[in-house]
Design goal:
Elements: E1 2-3, E2 19-20, E3 23-24, H1 25-34, E4 42-45, H2 49-58, E5 62-65, H3 69-83, E6 91-96, H4 104-115, E7 121-126, E8 129-130, E9 134-137, H5 141-145, H6 153-159, E10 164-168, H7 181-187
Parallel strand pairs: 1-4, 1-6, 4-5, 7-10
Antiparallel strand pairs: 2-3, 6-9, 7-8, 7-9
């Protein structure tokens, strides 16, 4: 599940639509997911929904629109999408649209930890710092859907620290968001 509904207020423009090599920030994030073992990709749109949906369509991803994207931040997008998942979906990997540096190997390591039975809450860690994406198992979907407005998905993880399985990774990509112009300039491909 790729959260791509944001307005990019700190960036001053829709960061998911910024150029990234021969694609966009979102396009690269989707490419990384498609090169991983992820079975089904859902992109949550909001701000500039038509443009985001077009990129999602090029990657053969399902699109879900969050009408309340401007009010609910990241949580409302995640709740809208999780509420529409089929009962057969065992877990959701929550990926941020502005994480084009998180490659397929990192994604696969989280999926492998879930498949190996290491729990229903799984997150990557680099040098002691937890990052994104995060995998949330079906066991926690109802609790996620019940989080109040103003909460964040990380609040779910904080409620269950003993259930959170951390997967060490060898890249700080899990800590990098393209939030501000300086972030974009520092990380975008030349």
């Amino acid at each position: 599940m790729v959260l791509a509904a944001g307005e990019g207020s700190r960036m001053g423009r829709a960061k998911q639509l910024l150029p990234w090599g021969e694609t966009t920030v979102l396009g690269q994030t989707l490419r990384n997911l498609r090169q991983s073992s992820v079975q089904h990709v859902v992109v949550v749109t909001g701000h500039r929904a038509q443009e985001v949906a077009a990129i999602a369509g090029q990657a053969d991803a399902e699109v879900v629109h969050n009408e309340a994207y401007a009010e609910g931040e990241m949580l409302s997008s995640l709740q809208v999408a999780v509420a529409q998942l089929p009962p057969s979906c065992p877990a959701v990997l929550v990926m941020l649209a502005d994480q084009p540096l998180v490659g397929p190997q990192i994604i696969n390591s989280l999926l492998a930890a879930f498949e190996a039975g290491h729990g229903q809450l799984i997150a990557p860690v680099f040098e002691g710092r937890r990052g994104n994406p995060v995998l949330i198992g079906r066991r926690y979907f109802q609790e996620l859907l019940a989080l109040p407005r103003g909460a964040a998905p990380r609040d779910l993880l904080r409620r269950h620290p003993d259930a959170l399985h951390l997967v060490p990774v060898d890249s700080d990509a899990i800590l990098v968001d393209i939030d501000r112009p300086a972030d974009y300039e520092a990380h975008r491909p030349s």
